[in-house]
Amino acid sequence: MGFESQIKEALSELEASGLLRTPLRISGPQGPEVLIDGKPVLCFCSNNYLGLANHPAIVAAAEASLRIDGVGASASRLITGTMDAHREAESAFAEFLRAPSAALFSTGYAANLGTIQALVGPGDLVFSDALNHASLIDGCRLSRARIHVYAHRSPSDLESLLERHRAKGRRALVVTDSLFSMDGVTAPLAEIASLARAFDAGLLVDEAHALGVLGPNGRGLAAAVGVQPDLVIGTLGKSFGVAGAFVAASEATVSLIRNRARSFVYTTAPPPMLARAAIAALELVRDAEDARQTLLSHAGALRAGLRKLGFDVPDGESQILPVLIGENDRTMRLSAELLERGVFVQGIRPPTVAQGTARLRLTPMATHRPEQIARAIDAFASLRTAR
Questions:
Q1: For residue 230, pLDDT beyond 70
Q2: Which of 88, 101, 127, 226 has its CA 20 to 30 A from that of 358?
Q3: 282 with 297, same domain?
Q4: Is there a single domain that holds both residue 150 and residue 296?
């Protein structure tokens, strides 16, 4: 069988198992309502939590940067790619998280991949939550450190693993998401941080889905519970509405990352306009307390409304609502039927989630109106009455 035939066979296998993905095409800006095939639909599957992706102040900052800085950075950060915009963004986000320093990356995936690989390696240990994001998992694997996976959100299992294995490694790193993106639940950070200190391990917390939403001024779950991790990863393509990511940590840690993180050293720096847009977004996020309250209120209304209809929505207090379906085909069929009713809710299937736990993942935005929340609930109700 030729190579092309093998590729087509692999695609056929994905389709037969209900796992073939075909992205829908969005026209125009991201917002509470988007255009799909020219048709306006309510969007309830975006990470644009505060609705900032098309905010005029952020657009203006990007436009101004284009005139000042041009478009591309033209080289990696260690050659000619470190520009004023990058340094200013790093200083702003370090100050925001009350950390001594920060390093800017092109994506959250690149930040996690590079940071973990830069800090631990052969002879070291990583302790990773079982449901960490794929980028954290891949960063752990790339590091070639010995990986110990602890039960999801289980400090007791983490403690057991630390007791059994910590003495076998030189350097140790505990790695966790703060807000898990597919379940909408938070990590027990206070207990995890205490264990990391007790066993002389570093603590890396990925605040991708919590920054901008949780904590004072949107500084994340760690700030909300009074924990100062050794490293915080923050992404800029979610609550901040831009693109890119950063790691905030000590001066020494960030310096080591800048020297060893392959996804920092060997890639062109992010466009300076994105760095300046992120600075503008940060100013909005700091003062977005009303938007944060509105977002969580919308999530609460959706959770209550869908449960009343009989849908399986687990407990949670975040902006992320999984509606558990189970079967891959049924999940995607329901997603398509909702889209026909003018509500865009994406289905999530393995390998993103475990086999048998396919779900519809709802994420409202602060900029949704109450009547749009009601329309989404009505669309789900029509799924019930259509059967």
A1: yes
A2: 127
A3: no
A4: no
